[in-house]
Amino acid sequence: MERLKELFTRGLFQGRHIKIKYxxxxxxxxxxxxxxxxxxxxxxxxxxxxxxxxxxxxHQNRTALDVSWxxxxxxxxxxxxxxxxxxPKIYLSEDxxxxxxxxxxxxxxxVTVTAINQIGGLSAATSKNVKxxxxxxxxxxxxxxxxxxxxKKRAIEAEAHGNITYTSSxxxxxxxxxxxxxxxxxxxxxxxxxxxxxxxxxKAAEKTVQVIVYPxxxxxxxxxxxxxxxxxxxxxxxxxxxxxGYVLRKYDPAKKRYKDYAExxxxxxxxxxxxxxxxxxxxxxxxxxxxxxxxxxxxAVKVKSTAASAESYGSxxxxxxxxxxxxxxxxxxxxxxGASVPQSMSLVGDKYVVTYVxxxxxxxxxxxYSNKGEYLGATGISGMGHANGSTYxxxxxxxxxxxxxxxIRSASCSAxxxxxxxxxxxxxxxxxxxxxxxxxxxxxxxxxxxxxIYVCDDDFNVEKFIWKRARYNHAQDIxxxxxxxxxxxxxxxxxxxxxxxxxxxxxxxxxxxxxxxxIESCFVDDKHLIILMNNxxxxxxxxxxxxxxxxxxx
Length: 554
Description:
The chain is mainly β. The chain contains 2 helices and 43 strands. The protein folds into 4 domains: 2-131, Sandwich (Immunoglobulin-like), CATH 2.60.40; 145-214, Immunoglobulin-like; 223-304, Immunoglobulin-like; 318-547, TolB, C-terminal domain (Neuraminidase). The strands form 11 sheets. Strands 17, 18, 20, 21 and 22 form a 5-stranded antiparallel β-sheet that branches. The protein has a 5-stranded mixed β-sheet with strand order 23-40-39-38-37, with no helix packed on it. The longest helix has 27 residues, at 20-46. It is elongated. The termini are far apart.
């Protein structure tokens, strides 16, 4: 009996075929048992319960067969899997189900299940035939579109069931090895087709991926000045093949080099710019994987301000009257730490920084507002002086103020950090002045004193002298925009003017009449004229005002 148990365990229970030499041994051992046990053993075997296997179901589940049947409360079950013309395979299960992995599909299989009784006998077999089918498959790749540069390589790394081959639609653009390694030959577009051969379990499959090969450098954009209005100039260019973006560069006269000015998407072919006196270049860019490629910059295009061709006048000429009909209040303002008199204002990035002093000039402050009028903070500064004029230079990141009070004219200048208010340096201007302005379109400083305007380089060396002819009243401060000096003059009461002079030839270009009180300072922010008013003789109070609409500064 022990030998029989061993045979079942080593043979049937492990799914092996019973060899012929063991069959004879089994017959011999059974006969011996019958002879030895006699009638008692025969009687015992005859009384053994036989088990019926019912409810057999067989389903294909991917590459396997799910076999199940009703539980017969047997000791175990034998499952026979037979393919036409092949010897059966035997599987054992203690439970009424079994999962059989198949190496070959698209075949018909016969599944037979028997129950094993208490002494190892088998019940009557229950069988079912099932027709299997090969599975459809999808070729998996990291991407459906691959990009690369000339003379670079990239692996497709396709995944599928079966032998994979690759084919390029244009080997002059991209070649692909038997292992799926693409080599980018020249710029262009192509397709790589991935074929998977049919196997024992899966059907054949195919996938096509797009390939774009970029050149080592993009073509140089061709840019031109398309149209002009009183306030803007339009730069236009032809789209550059493969470009994913464009970078517009503007010439910085202070640094004597071009700096990045704005970035645009690859779909952009035109941009409107303020009528600044400036030169621009354009380059195309693209990011290819971890590589950044670009073009050579375009030829420079010069955008001239309207000042270069603006009509000049020999005597007073009103360009526009600025009052409540076309001015809006950005914010009402107040000083800090006893410095209560607003004297000047600078544009620092997108902030408006007002200089405040007391009447003696011993106490001062820099008070900041956002361009929406939000109060941002104040920094007290002792000994600022009258600070009748101030300006900000983005290249030095300093605010320059005219320091001492000598009938509101001085040759002493102080430079402060706009954030901390720390004094960076004191120096002497080449001329006594009441107003100071920096023009970033030409990297020049403008100084005003009464009827006089001085054009200085970035070291404050006087290069040009302009005699102001429009009026002979007190010049408070001066603004600068695209080669135009904007002289702020208060006559008396509510009467103030902003007189415009072209610094290239000293021509008077007209005036803005500001009949709303004492004007202190002005500058241009995004084509809007920004004005600082003091004491509000016109009833407005201390305030920052802005033109409602952009102004065409000549």
